[in-house]
Amino acid sequence: MFLSKIWFFLIALVAAIALTIALTLPRPAQRHFVEEEHKRLSIACGVVDIQLADDARKRLELTGTFARSEDIVKALTAASGADKIDEARMKPARDTAEKVMTAVSGRKPDFAVLIDKRGRVVASVNLDQNDPGDVVAGRPLVDDALAGYLRDDLWTRNGTMYFVTASPVIKRDAPVEYVGAVVLGHQVTNDLAKFLVKTLDVELEFYMGKDAVAGSKSLAIDASQMLPRVKALTDPDRGKDCLAEPLEVTSGKESYTEIERRLPGEAGARGAFYSVLIQRPSTIGFMGTLHGVKKSDLTPGRFPWHFVGAGFVIVLAIGIALMMMEADRPLKRLTADAVKLAKGESERLSEDAHGGKFGSIARSVNIHIDKVSREAKTAKKDIDALLGPAPEGSLGTIDLLATALPSARPGGPAPAASAPPSDFKFSAPPPAPTPPPASFKPSGPPASIPKPAAAPPPKPAAPAPPAPPTRAPTPPPVAMPAAAPAAPSLLGGLGDSLDDDILGGLGLSNSGPTTGLSNPAIAAPEPAGKLGSTADGEAHFRQVYEQFLTVKKTCGEPTAGLSFEKFSEKLVKNRDDLMAKTGCKEVRFTVYVKEGKAALKATPVKDE
Amino acid sequence: MTFLVRVAVFGTAMFVGGAAVAGPVSGKLDLTAATAERPPAATKGWLDRVENPLAPARPVNVTSQMIVVLDGAKPSSPGQVTWELVGESFGHPVMGAPAGAEVLIKNLSGTARTLIAAEDPKLIPAGPLNPKGSKSFRTTEANKIYTVSDSEAVHLKGKLVVVDSQYVTTVDEGGKFEFGEVAEGSYKLRIFYKDGWLDGTTDVVVGAKGKTEVNPKVPALTASAKK
Predict the structure, then answer these.
(1) Minimal Cα distance from B3: which residue of A?
(2) Listed residue (B82, B65, B88, B89) closest to B172, CA to CA
(3) Which H or E element spans position A594?
(4) Which site among A396, B6, B68, B74 is 20 to 30 Å from A407 CA-CA?
(5) pLDDT for A129-184, tens place per residue?
(6) Which of residues 88-117 of B touch A (CB under 8 A)?
C-alpha cells in the first residue's frame, strides 16, 4: 500500500498545483485586462475631448458664416444706433437669422442670437429666453465677441446643455467697425454622444452636477458617487482628468468602469462633466476565464487533447496496477488462506505468504488462535485445580468428590494416584484402600445408582459375582445405577452425554471422545436441582447430600464425620467459585460413583 | 455716462454739515496712461479665443470699473444708492456708496438672481432677486469693499465700495464724471479701479459759486492699487 499512497499523494499534489495555477493564472491576465481597460478609458476620454474640440472649430466656422452675412451686418448696424430695441426692429433681424440658419448645410445650430454692439439682444432664433433689448453683455463669451474675439463656451439652461460659439460682427465697409456679435448654440443630445463614441466602443454620459444631461446609452447610474471625484479634479490642465483612477459604477445589473473629465466653460464652472464608461465583463477571475472560453479554444488544433488523454490513461493505469499489486492480490491470497483455515485444511494462516498489513492480519489471527488454545488449556487446568480433574473428556463437568475412589478399580489394580486436589472430603482422611466391591466389575453393565435392593454391598473382599449389595432404602429421588459403576465403563459412557450447555459456555467443542457423567445410566436421575432461591438451594444441597450419603454407604465408604453443614458449605463454596470462574448462572451437582467411590460432579449451567 | 452705466447716485446732499451748497463738480479723467490688457477669459471652451482678422480688438473698457470720490466731507446724509442689474452683469461692475447709505439693487433683467456678498453673507437680504424686483440694504462701515456675486452665474460679479465721504460717483465710457451739488470747501479726489484705489489724489477746491471742473490724470493701471 505504500506505493499506492505515494501515488495518491503525487496525484493530490499535482491536482493541488493545477488548481493553484488555475486560480492564480487568470489574475495576471485580469490585471493586464484591467490595465488595458484603464488605458482604453483614458484614451477614449482624451479622444472624446479632441472630438469635442474639433467640433468646436466646426461650430466656430459656422458662426463665422453667420457673422459674415451682409443682412445680419446691416441689421446689427441699424440696431446698434437705436436707443431702443423693439419688436419692429427685432422681427426683420430674426427673419434674416432664420434665413441664414436654413441655408446652413449639415449640422444646424439649435439656436442663434444676434447682439448689437451695446450687448443688447436684437433677435434670437429658437431661444425665447431673451426679450428684445435684454442685455447679455457680461457673459464672457459675449464680451469677448463684442471685443472682436472668436471663441466657444458651454452654457446650461433649464437642464439643457449647449455648446455655444460666438463671433464678432464687423462692418467691413469703411469705416470698419464692430456692430455686434452672433452667438450659435448646439444642444448636447444623445445623438451627439453616440456620434462621439461610435468608433470607440465606450459609452459617454454628460452630467450637470449629478443630473444626467445626455448620453450615448440610457444608463441609470448614481452620479453622486462621481461628484466628489470631480470636485477633487483641480488641475488647470483638464487633460490630466483622464489619468485618474477609474471608478466602478453600476446601472441596473450592468457594471461599468468609468472615468470623468470636467467640461470647460461656464457649465464646467458649475460642475458639468462627462463620463466615459466601459462595461465590465459579468464575471472576472477564474470563473470569468472559464466563461470566456470559446469552442474554438477547445478544438484539437488549439488544445492538446491527445496529451491530456494519454496522461489520464497513464495515471489511471499506474493507479490501478498499484492497487492490484498492493491490495487486490494480497487480499485475494489472504482470503484463500482464511477459507482453508475455516475448512480445517490448515490450523494457522501462513504468515510468510503475506506481506505488509496482510501479514500483520495473518499474524494477529494466528496469535488469537494461539491465545484461544492457551485459554482453553488454562481453563481446563483452572477447573481441574479448583475442582479436581473431570472425567476424561468431560471438560464441562467437574468432579467435586473423588476421594472415595477405591484404591483399586474393580477388577483391576487400585489407582496409584491419590485423589485429585479438588476432591474434598466431609470426613476424616479416607481409609486405606479397600478392595472394590464385588459388584464393581469392569465387564459389568453400567449400573445406575443402586437402588437399595440392587446396590452391591460394599464388601471389598467378597469376590462374589456381582450382586447388588443389600442396603437400606435410599431416598427415592436418587436413581443411581443399581450396580456400582465400574470406572472404565462409567467413564466411557459419560463421553456420550456431555452437557452441551456447559461445553458452549466454555467455548469448547466436543470434538474428541469424551466421557461424561450425565449418562442417565449412572447419574442420579435428578439430584441436581437448579438453585433458585436460598431455600431451593438448601433443599437441593440436602437432596444431593442424602444421595451422596446413600451412594457412599452403597460403596461401603465410611460416612462418619460427614455432616450436612460441612457438605453444603463445600457445595456453596464450589458453586460460587465455579460461577465466578465460568460465569455460569447456576451449578448443577450430580452424585456418581467413581472408581468405586462416591463422587460429586458440578456442572455449570449457563442458560436456563 | 455710457448706456451701460445706469447707476444713479443719490448720495449727494444739498447741505453738507451745515455748509452751503456751492455747485456741481464735474470733470473728465485723463486716460491716456490708463490702458489695460484684456484679462484672460473668465471661462473658456475647448478653444482659446481668437482675434478676428478683420479689425483690431476693441480696447478694454476700464472706466466701467472706476469710481471717483471727493474726500473731505463726512457723509452726514448718505441717502440712497441704486445699483442696477442689467442682463448678465451689473450696469456698473464697481459701485461706490457713502457709509450709512441705503443700497438698492434693481434687477432689470429677465433672470432671477441670488446675490450674496462674499465678505459679509448677511449684508444682502437672503432670497432670490426676481426679475424686475429689487433688494435694499444699508452699509454701515466705511472703507469696506464687498464682492457681490451669484453662485449660479460665475460671470456675474460686482464690487461695492463703501467710502467715508458724502461725494462718490461713477465714470462713463469716455471718462466723464459728475458729483452734482458739492458744498464749498477743499477736497481730495481719489480714483478706485477694479479692486483697489489708484495711487495719487487730486486737490479740488469748490468755490462759493459756480461749476467746478477737474480733469485728473489717471495713472498707469498696471501699478499696484491700494486696497
Answers:
(1) A118
(2) B65
(3) strand A586-594
(4) A396
(5) 556 678 888 889 999 999 999 999 999 888 899 999 999 999 988 888 999 999 99
(6) 88-90, 109-110
